[in-house]
Specification:
Length: about 525
């Protein structure tokens, strides 16, 4: 009887020991990964060894020790430039030419006393910075009356000369001032308290509360343009989505430290470039459902389940996210093992790197050609990868980082291979990640929004600025142009004429830019 009890206790202790070892390994992996993210390089480039790892054929791919193929030699032919790098950099700037010549009485040869002639010149360039300046524009509207009526009639008609409407009534705000402050905060990530000090050094007192009020009023004025861009995005059939955290201090019924979210939606590689932000207090899946109501087509996303139940939408997975998880697995193993071609993470990274190599070759291809090549080459790689994945995912503990990476790929597989169905689709959601990055960088400087109204305003302004940038427009110039036009704009057609991709806007702003540089 005692032997049976001891055997049972021994088995339980062994099981408990294995569990503790697995937990200990998981904690070590999390610690190493946290160290890597905090102190290591943020680059996710695949090492040369990972790039050159080879494949076995599909029927033998279940073996996790594929042969290593010989490294490929790639020869690049660089097209000679017609101008130097400095000339290329300075080519878009306004140029002032200053010439230096000898006075006529000094154009005498010191050897023979004969006259000298110009034989050439030396040229050097300097970059001259002209700081921002603040000035006051007084708008004086003269009033006119009839002297005869003043003398002989009961009433006297008074006519006032027309003048432009104030952007914000009873304020000092001008189109250029509001555009400048918005551009400084949302393009250059300069918080309003720093701008307040900046204006003090320029000789004018503009309190932070005043600047904040201008931002709120200006953002509300931009909302009709945001709504038009939103409607245009819903008319497309390919989009991208992402989300990131935001802290809003004063939300009804919520603590100041609660997490809110800034959602991003944008167009794909075709159609007008559109980037839209939306503030929401939660990460609920109801938010993209509501924002994308009326959209039908493909939506590029990461693995977040909140996008799963959007009506009339087919989700496209992100290979960059899948790759990132295998990179994390490499970062938590001992340094000596990271270059091991037989390590499962390196094998997975090789498959993914080959997919990206094909995409790089097809960067400038037509959608039709891209789809044909994907079906010929990418599909074969994915088929081999899937056989390998199914085998290895059953042999690796899912709670470890490597196991989690394998499980992610397996669970996301239908979405990860969806890009094969349409040459307009992309292999990852990096387009959305690049678009949300300016907000993430800005958030590090201004840290939080004070109220939901401020968060909504920030979403609108970021949308306008990032869409302007995507359409090749300078944010300040575009905002200034829009604010100049808004006081005289009333119809929906006129709002449509202010959209960043409108040919009239493009030609006017580019013409203004060229005029200022000439």
């Amino acid at each position: 009887m005692e032997i049976a009890v001891l055997k049972k206790e021994n088995a339980e202790l062994k099981s408990k020991n294995i569990q503790l070892e697995n937990e200990n390994k998981w904690l070590k992996e999390q610690f190493l990964l946290a160290q890597k993210k905090q102190f290591g390089s943020s680059s996710e480039k695949t090492s040369a060894l990972q790039i050159e790892l080879g494949f076995n054929e599909a029927e033998t791919v279940a073996d996790s020790s594929p042969e290593v193929v010989e490294p490929k030699t790639i020869t690049y032919t660089r097209k000679p430039k017609s101008v130097g790098h400095r000339e290329e950099v300075l080519g878009n700037l306004q140029t002032e030419v200053i010439e230096y010549r000898l006075p006529e009485d000094e154009q005498v040869c010191s050897c023979c006393g004969g006259p000298m002639h110009e034989m050439g010149s030396d040229t050097r360039d300097e970059v001259v910075i002209i700081p921002a300046q603040v000035k006051v524009t007084k708008h004086i509207s003269f009033k006119y009356a009839c002297r005869n009526c003043e003398r002989n009639e009961i009433t006297t008609p008074i006519v006032t000369a027309p003048a432009p409407k104030a952007l914000i009534p009873k304020s000092l705000a001008s189109a250029s001032a509001v555009a400048y402050i918005m551009s400084q905060k949302y393009t250059e990530a300069m918080p309003l308290y720093r701008q307040e000090k900046h204006f003090e050094r320029m000789g004018i007192e503009l309190p932070r509360a005043t600047l904040s009020n201008w931002m709120l009023k200006g953002g509300e004025m931009l909302e009709p343009i945001f709504n038009f861009m939103h409607k245009r995005l819903l008319d497309l059939d390919i989009a991208h989505a992402d989300e990131t955290t935001l802290q809003v201090l004063h939300e009804d019924g919520r603590k100041a430290e609660s997490k809110s979210y800034m959602w991003l939606y944008r167009s794909g590689r075709e159609g007008p470039p559109i980037v839209l932000f939306e503030y929401q207090p939660t990460r609920s899946g109801s938010n993209p459902k509501q924002f994308l109501d009326g959209f039908a087509g493909h939506l590029h996303v990461d693995g977040y389940s909140g996008y799963n139940d959007i009506k009339s939408v087919t989700l496209v997975g992100c290979w960059a996210h899948a790759r990132r998880k295998f990179v994390d697995a490499i970062n938590v193993i001992p340094l000596a093992q990271r270059s091991d071609p037989k390590h499962l993470a390196n094998i997975a990274l090789k498959y993914i790197s080959d997919l990206y190599e094909i995409e790089e070759e097809l960067r400038d291809a037509s959608p039709e050609h891209r789809q044909v090549v994907r079906n010929e080459r990418s599909a074969a790689i994915l088929s081999e990868f899937k056989v390998w994945l199914d085998k290895e995912s059953t042999l690796t503990l899912p709670k470890h980082i490597l196991g989690a990476a394998l499980t992610y790929c397996k669970n996301q597989w239908p979405k990860l291979i969806e890009f094969l169905t349409d040459g307009r689709l992309e292999i990852d959601n990096n387009r959305a990640e690049r678009s949300i990055k300016p907000f993430v960088i800005g958030r590090k400087n201004w840290l939080f929004s004070n109220t939901p109204r401020g968060a909504k305003t920030s979403a609108i302004i970021y949308s306008i600025i990032e869409t302007a940038k995507e359409n090749g427009l300078d944010p300040f110039s575009y905002l200034k142009y829009v604010f100049e036009q808004l006081p005289i704009t009333h119809s929906k057609t006129a709002i449509d004429d202010l959209l960043p991709w409108n040919p009239t806007v493009q030609s006017r702003l580019n013409m203004k830019l060229n005029t200022s540089q000439s």
